[in-house]
Amino acid sequence: MRCRKLKVNPFRKHVEKLSEWEMSFIIKENAQLIQVAHPIMEGLYEIVAGSGFVIVLADKNGYIIDAIGNHEFKRSKELNLVVGANWSEKSAGTNAIGTSLCLDKPVQIIGAEHYCSKNHCLTCSAATIHDEENKIIGCINMSGNYSEAHSHTTGIVASGARLIEKHFALQESNKLLNVIFNSISEGMLVLDEDLKIKRTNKMASKILGISEEEILSTDINSLTKDMDFIKKILNIENVYYNLDCNLYIKNRRIKCSMNAFPIIFNGKANGIVITFKDEGYLHKIVNVMAGYNAKYNFEDIVTKNKDMKRTIEFAKKAAITNCSILIEGPSGTGKELFAQSIHNYSTRKNGPFVAVNCASLPKELMESELFGYEKGAFTGAAKDGHPGKFELADGGTIFLDEIGELPLDMQSKLLRVLDNNKITRLGGTYEKKLNVRIIAATNRDLIDEIKNKNFREDLYYRINVMNIKTLSLKQRVEDIEILANYFIHRLNSENPSCFKALSSRYLELISNYSWPGNVRQLRNVVERSYYLCESNNITEEYLYDYINIKKRLSLVNDEEVATIDDKNSEVMTIEEMEKSSIRKAIKEAKGDLIKAAEMLNISRATIYRKIKKYSINGY
Length: 619
Known about the structure:
Structural class: alpha/beta
Number of helices: 26
Pfam families: AAA_lid_14, GAF, HTH_8, PAS, Sigma54_activat
Strand content: 15-25%
Helix content: 40-55%
InterPro entries: AAA+_ATPase, AAA_lid_NorR, GAF, GAF-like_dom_sf, Homeodomain-like_sf, HTH_Fis, P-loop_NTPase, PAS
Oligomer: single chain
Organism: Clostridium aciditolerans
Shape: elongated
GO molecular function, one term: sequence-specific DNA binding
Number of strands: 19
Domain Sigma-54 factor interaction: 301-531
Largest sheet: 5 strands, antiparallel
CATH topology of the largest domain: Rossmann fold
CATH superfamily of the largest domain: P-loop containing nucleotide triphosphate hydrolases
CATH class of the largest domain: Alpha Beta
Distance between the termini: 88 Å
């Protein structure tokens, strides 16, 4: 009935046949099925070899995509049992291939059971092949002279189809496993019980810098100098997590964090799985996410002052060395700008730039912040430990701003790190060797601090190999106008729909002001004027507004407060006003202490000290 509905001619002598070009696409589409099925077809053919049978593989649409035994079945070409021929019911009527695909079950068609008369000489047995989702992906068929028909043939073919399905599913699982294996962000090594590397992945190749084939031929003994932990794993004595280790390949040492655990079958370790991460790569990811990079260059330092230009040239010479650098200068003179520029001019420019404000570190957390901590080092510690700022700066630069604020005990620990280039995490026993360049900065006179026993002399000489002194704005008056215009240009770039310019009177007034807060204060004033001004021309009235605020807040100036006799009855009043001024500034800066310090024209260290002194909480 199906063949009549399909209007198949029972006397047709030919079936649909694909051209070589069309067939190449079908073969490519079914390459995996052919690869899996062909060895099984060869095994089946050995059973029937010499009996004149041909074994063919068809795709889900009935096109023959592989054949074995054509030389024995001499009429195979004449009867269209060749690659490219279509044996669906629509093309060849009732036949084992087409009917099996239609009914989705094993069938045997003998002699005249074939719809087309030309095939009455055949006996054919076929069974469908399914993928893991039970979808038909093809069909295996065994055909021969109808006089050789045997009921067992169908069972043989059905068994072959099931075997192909199992092998196909296994290959699909292996493909999935390979995808998973190679999508893991860690390097992976699978060792057998003889500690030979049997499997690896692309990330391992990337970390080690050699091909996967080279890894498979590498002796694990040459890859790591510490085999004890591997042997312990094989004896199921231990599982290792986050083990710091070194891997050696082609005269290179790679610092890694490693996990290792046994492959257990029937209570016995038959191998080991090792996963590892390149610590340098991990730190790069952390540094990118945390923003540990330097964005400024020497070209970003705006000046026409000769002394400033000489300072820049000296800083460039210092940058190309590996020496420690001490940058000294008043607050707001661009010490971090110089530090970032030095980093980006040096050979470490592709490494991290980690800035640490020593004044803002709580004393009780200072060591763990700088040097990191191991798991369980203290209550609330992360379960896997945490790298410190020095570790994160490995291969790059650490900028220790306001280094004069470090307590003496931390100065001693810092000196030790500078002397041997190693750190030990809090709660740890393992020393990690680091390659970090130190740039320190201070607005204090460290020589006076040494005299007052507040700073270690040996640390001073250790960090002060190269010394850079930044200039106050009072020393570079000619830069005031160009800096102000530079800040306005930057603000205009950030707000293209709101172009503004400074009036000549505004520029005249700022050029005659002393700027005790230096460039930081100037930038703050210009930005404030820019956002307060509603026209395109920023006039001096916005400058007066700032100066009035400054007069109100000038009470917090340390020198002014220090001149007042502690026993004077006015002290409390001044302290209250100072506290109130700090609160107002913090509120106006929306809790940003750095901005608040800029508004008050005091250093960051001073505002932290005042907040602590007056117990200002919650901001």
